[in-house]
Amino acid sequence: xxxxxxxxxxxxxxxxxxxxNDYDSFAEAYSAENENNLVNxxxxxxxxxxxxxDVAGRRVLDAGCGSGSLSAxxxxxxxxxxxxxxxxxxxxxxxxxxGDGVDLRVVDLSGRLPFDDGAFDDVVASLVLHYxxxxxxxxxxxxxxxxxxxxxxxxxxxxxxxxxxxEPRPDYFATTSYTFDWTFNxxxxxxxxxRRPLHAMTDAFATAGxxxxxxxxxxxxxxxxxxxxxxxxxxxxxxxxxxxxxxVPMVAADSDCGPVGG
Length: 262
Known about the structure:
- The chain is globular.
- Helix content is 31%, strand content 26%.
- With 262 residues, the chain is an alpha/beta fold.
- Strand 3 (80-85), helix 4 (88-98) and strand 4 (103-106) form a beta-alpha-beta unit.
- It has helices at residues 27-36, 38-52, 69-76, 88-98, 136-144, 159-164, 198-207, 224-227, 229-237, and strands at residues 9-10, 59-63, 80-85, 103-106, 120-126, 146-157, 176-184, 187-195, 211-216, 241-247.
């Protein structure tokens, strides 16, 4: 699920766990905000598309597709896209955007994915993993549905950003949760995230069988300078998200040669 980040406010009150991360309750407002804002439309999404590169003809799973903005961008570049998300209301918004030509399914990424081994050339996980306390089962499933040589392209909350805005500061080397409000149309919605250190991320990727190809801290789209003059400088000079390209190693081919005699 992509994240909207226009000035989050830290919570000063206890939150009912049943109400946290309830995307169904604000799917329509979220979709509208995500469409053209600075952080998503002019920074995170262009960076994901750039890292994906030429996707024409590639089978791409959008894991946590939300309202389908990234799915649409990849489809328009020739990818054969499948989208999954835990929120039925978000998928309804994605269906309105994408039409009936894209396979969209309600799926919880903490469980088994309803796809065969090696079903995809690429998986994109746009601002999704930081909602999960335990990455192991999710990464194992994403690895399973990727073919040898396939890629996982992921963006997450930068661990340093999540560390610095918490008071008191947590143990950087521990995996810790944090909660704040997203506000749409004057109404606040509590969101819970999990922050982990960089080495814990790369260790989790390696444990799942991925090979780190790219780690990136990109710049926003230069077009945003004029559209968002007050916020562009802060985004272009400070950390926000962290991006990874991870590869599934190719299976070594069996040798056709027998023993060599002398």
